[in-house]
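Exercise 7. Predict the structure of Bifunctional UDP-N-acetylglucosamine 2-epimerase/N-acetylmannosamine kinase from Haliaeetus albicilla.
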Amino acid sequence: EVYFKNLSKQKQKEVMEKNGNNHKLRVCVATCNRADYSKLAPIMFGIKAEPQFFELDVVVLGSHLIDDYGNTYRMIEQDDFDIHTRLHTIVRGEDEAAMVESVGLALVKLPDVLNRLKPDIMIVHGDRFDALALATSAALMNIRILHIEGGEVSGTIDDSIRHAITKLAHYHVCCTRSAEQHLIAMCEDHDRILLAGCPSYDKLLSAKNKDYMSIIRMWLGEDVKTRDYIVALQHPVTTDIKHSIKMFELTLDALISFNKRTLVLFPNVDAGDKEMVRVMRKKGIEHHPNFRAVKHVPFDQFIQLVAHAGCMIGNSSCGVREVGAFGTPVINLGTRQTGRETGENVLHVRDADTQDKILHALQLQFGKQYPCSKIYGDGNAVPRILKFLKSIDLKEPLQKKFCFPPVKDNISQDIDHILETQSALAVDLGGTNLRVAIVSMKGEIVKKYTQLNPKTYEDRLELILKMCVEAASEAVNVNCRILGVGISTGGRVNPREGIVLHSTKLIQEWSSVDLRTPISDALHLPVWVDNDGNCAALAERKFGHGKGIENFVTLITGTGIGGGIIHQHELIHGSSFCAAELGHIVVSLDGPECLCGSQGCIEAYASGIALQREAKKLHDEDRLLVEGMSMKKEEVVSAAHLIQAAKLGNTKADSILRTAGTALGLGVVNILHTMNPSLVILSGVLASHYVNAVKDVINRQALSSVKTVDVVVSNLADPALLGAASLVLDYTTRRIY
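Solution. The predicted structure, encoded as tokens:
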């Protein structure tokens, strides 16, 4: 770790020497509207905080300077930034021609500004027509361009503008892995692409716990409660203005019918925006008691409003990007964001002929709370971007190079990013210990934490959160990008809701417990929960003997007996999440009593608890210890003593183990006759002691058609943690939203 940090410092030092020891990188940040400023401001603060490396010039243009849109340049001044130049570039009008004229006006005015500033690099954000003018001017004047949020996909003319800016830009900062792959597919230089995440997430992920009620009351009224209001933000779609106006009318009708307090923000400066404002006034929105119509809300306050809203509705990219950080329900209307990656909090209404479809969507979404999503960032974008800026060598040729196919797999620009690994936080909630680990995509346990499992629900949940927060913080230091949290626990689990329905007797006070919500809220990460037997099967499917096997069964032989069933490559949960309770297959009608209350279960014969019970009986009868064995007076009798005694020739102990192996083997035969898997994997501390006995029972008792089944001992060192990690890694890398 120290080596790589020193290597990074050395590289920065070399770049400074190449650029001239006293030369600071002169950065021009141009902002056009309230939306792009929310993304650029965190970068601007970062640049301003390091005056030894950077000089910052701020250029303001576009709708920032229009009174109808709130004169939003004032929030830049309030953030204590010196505005070097103000350019009035918006041509008033209501059609596409006005947008074209605005681009032309910006192109006329920008050369003089850039000639005076002479920046080393210009930072341009996004996909607005103003940004296209900025990128065109800078490219033609041989000024390096850093483009923020390139490679993304949406459903309007913005797509074309975004990709055009990509081709003009020299460096790229993207927010998602998919966007990064798109840039590579567009033949951009691999070494000039940085996967940093969205800069606004650096502020979002630290914002939710701040005081918010005063902000809600200021914008929506004194009587409004959290989760009981709506935020609406809808823009015209410039490629289909008439349809987007109609959609806006239907949206307002649905909101009026839904009868909840609603904050409506004015649309962006685009062709059709004036018509949308006329629709608002025609329907009396500005004077309706349930509505508050505003031109602009400062970003810090807007964050709090959407974080605690009952729902957000509209077609703003903010709904599908930033709002996911809070798990707030979103209704995305129309085609403006088609192609964007979204979390499960987003419900799409692609087309609406009447208000009923939108109204029904409001009824479905309003008031829900979803897991927090970090698709677009992890809160560490700005440090990555500043490091990237420092690595730019101004003596390198300005002319862009395109990397035409074949595309390399390795796409990061320095060793730190090459080593950064997609990973999961894995939690194993055991009867004795609570374990948390950082697990890489390849199944490597990068870091592991272990604590004794507290006895009460409150203490247990508090410890889980504390250990997960500690592990998530450490993940940054070990170059791991955490995709989510997977939890393995005993008992019956509803994986769809992340709720432990009924736990085992080993973990008291752990029934009907929602694990997903508090952990997701605390970490701003998606969370998955499943039974430990199911997790063991998932671990085998991804990392063990089950890799590539269509149908197999995993049996855990430890303190209890559990398992998981993979059928046609998918895990079986059952109608009431009770599938694969393999330890409770009955193999004798008059066998020993099981912890479940029944008799003759496999677990009553072959589990660690069952063997310990039999060992204690032998010890009490003074028939356990044989020559070569000794026990301290205070030592607790365990299954290990029974196994040791059998190995040293204790016939009674050997008979107990053979009975246990036979019971397990009969259970496996029942599984073979029911599921007909091609592979049975024995996992857990007792697996190696049982494998031969199980094979013998299969040869004696099974139908000839299933005797060819392979029975193997798991080679995974920690299936519970690896299985919990598999919940995350399988889901996040294969799901299509």
